[in-house]
């Protein structure tokens, strides 16, 4: 029951998605539409995206386990599955200690949440797990269709594939700015990365990848910013996106920065002409 995501998908928070952008992304050839941040348990935003498209997979990336009850989320999953059979993937994750007051025993909480989804008959092959470190990556392989790493690099993708083994979905997110001026592109990137580089789940992962406190401080070093947010022409960005596939990703989930709503579509269309 594992869903075919295609090689490339698109990720945005709900306020950037809309029927026009969703339909355009699907028409451009992207296989999946990812609803970012923390969608509510009723999954109504995902329902809008499903209704706006015909065949693209719609997934959450991710429902926050601290914020939304697993039983309520499971009920919403079954509603979407009934309305749009085979097209929805439930991505769930643990969130961040800096943002979730009740954050404790994260690994056990993930296990308990997945247990409830099991009891509610949400198929393992139709759910994915936000995962960065080895322990949660292994759990994603054992209990779900695969992993949804966020804010990572092709080197993390390579390590994640080694941890997951074969036959498990791996769909890392990669940010991009379609801008050839290095300083302009890095300015857009740093504005977006500022809050993420304050979150220990991400900074710990970056340190495992070899980045230092100096790389992470003061908005991020050029090397770190360029790795986390690709910039340049569509052809240049495509090379970086394909590096994730070469490292073992099944799908690369693209998040374009610097635009809003329908204004994002021309960039995705330009990338699609190179990637798809």
UniProtKB/TrEMBL annotation:
Residues 20-118 form the Luciferase-like domain. This is F420-dependent oxidoreductase. Gene3D superfamilies: Luciferase-like domain. SUPFAM superfamilies: Bacterial luciferase-like (SSF51679).
